Amino acid sequence: MDSKELFEVNKKAVFAVMEEVMKRLGASRLAVTGVYSGSGDEGGVEDVTVEAWKDDQRIELGLEHFPSVEETFVQSDFDPGRKAWVEHAPETRTVSIQVAVERLTEDAIDIAGHRGYEINDGGHGEFTLSVSAGEEPTAYLKHHDYYVDETASEHTL
After folding, report:
1. What pTM did the predictor assign?
2. How far is CA 144 from CA 6, 10, 41, 125, 156, in A?
3. Helices 3-25 and 97-111: angle between axes, nearest 10 degrees
């Protein structure tokens, strides 16, 4: 199972938990967002936030209202005889919604081509998973890179 397939399996597991919570609350929309930032070779997911709405009214909701998520992972070990990494069969483990969203955020960053965003000047962004009544769930990454800009000019006067 490659990283994209693993991401899709775990994304579906989080969507299922989100839809369960949305139905239990009678909400019309629910969004969970992983917020990340980094620079100077350090960074990661800093926060996981929740927003829920019932019609046009915002509902106060914390991560403690979410059940656990069954996360799928693939363990790999280095085989010195073969001088190669060997992947084992996919397994599952129970994690909190916070841990599941943090890992999905890091995977989304990687899949979208922003691996290493925390190096040098860095970057930041948000990965949002959203479910709405009567609509397909969505996942959206909004990423920003930091960079130093320089303008030079020379003049003989």
Report:
1. 0.88
2. 25, 24, 16, 6, 39
3. 140
Measured in degrees and rounded to the nearest 5, phi and psi for residue 87 equal: -90, 140
**pLDDT tens-digit map of 68-120:** 999 999 998 999 999 999 988 999 999 999 999 999 999 999 999 998 888 88
Question: From the CB of residue 56, how many other CB atoms can be counted at a distance below 10 Å?
Answer: 7
* DSSP of 6-31: HHHHHHHHHHHHHHHHHHHHT-SEEE
Of 150, 148, 101, residue with least CA distance to 127: 101
Q: Exposed e or buried b for every residue in 105-126, given b needs 16+ CB within 10 A?
A: bbbbbeeeebeebbeeebbbbb
User: Which residue, among 38, 17, 4, has the nearest Cα to 122 in the 3D structure?
Assistant: 38
- Helix or strand (DSSP H, E) at 106: helix 97-111
Q: How far is Cα 103 from Cα 14, in angstroms, rounded to an integer?
A: 11
> Distances in Å between the alpha carbon of 75 and those of 71, 81, 85, 89?
13, 18, 10, 8
